[in-house]
Amino acid sequence: MPVYLALFRGINVSGHNIIKMEHLRKLMEANGYINVETYIQSGNVVFETDETDKAKVAYNIQLLLYKEYGYDVVIFIYDETDLIKAIDNNPYTDRVPEPSGPKKYFVVFLSEEPSVAGIDQVKKYNRSDDVFKVVDSVMYLKLAQSAADSKLTSTFIENKTKLKATTRNWNTTLKMLEMLQARKA
């Protein structure tokens, strides 16, 4: 049975689109998803389902959230292979967690590969020492200071690329892979 990671865009951020992870887990299990496991409050869910079409899985979860909470939440679905590729393509760091303190490495999952014009818009308006690189539909960030000091937010990236985006720090991204791989053990 396929094992997937769902990344939810824009839930539990600044008091908006509040979803308790325990309630989400129970809701998904009541609707046929198996072995649902959540990680932190920003919408990271590992689960199993018989459905093999990732777009259909994303749509079904999006519909479920809309019916239950009234939120129109964008859902990104990845399997282990997708996440390994995203991690291995990071040009700024290896598979080593960052130490405690402000995080500098982030992975921005995009709804599709951005256009050259979209990437140019991010470059044009990014007025800091923060750097980024895009590989396929993933943008990698290396921040000079911290996320709080960076212009490279999901909203900024969405506005410039005209795509949907959700961002995870490097440690969370590594933890998601660990959770996916634990299902094989």
* Beginning-to-end CA distance, first to last residue: 14 Å
- 3D shape: globular
Helix coverage percent: 25-40%
Task: Trace the largest sheet across and list its strands.
Answer: 2-3-1-4
Q: Runs with pLDDT <50, length 5+?
A: none
Helix-strand sequence: EHEEHEHEHEEHEH
Give the C-alpha Rg. Answer: 16 Å
Instruction: Kindly estimate the percentage of residues that lie in beta strands according to DSSP.
Output: 15-25%
Count of discrete domains = 2
Largest sheet: 4 strands, antiparallel
Quaternary structure classification:
single chain
**Level-1 CATH class name of the largest domain:** Alpha Beta
Pfam families: DUF1697 (PF08002)
Protein name: DUF1697 domain-containing protein
InterPro entries: DUF1697
Organism: Flavobacterium arcticum
In short:
This protein has about 180 residues and is an alpha+beta fold. Helices cover about 35% and strands about 25% of the residues.
List the SSEs and their pairings.
Layout: E1 3-8, H1 21-30, E2 34-39, E3 44-48, H2 54-69, E4 75-78, H3 80-88, E5 105-110, H4 116-125, E6 131-135, E7 138-142, H5 154-161, E8 165-169, H6 170-182
Antiparallel strand pairs: 1-3, 1-4, 2-3, 5-7, 5-8, 6-7
Helix pairs in contact: 3-6, 4-5
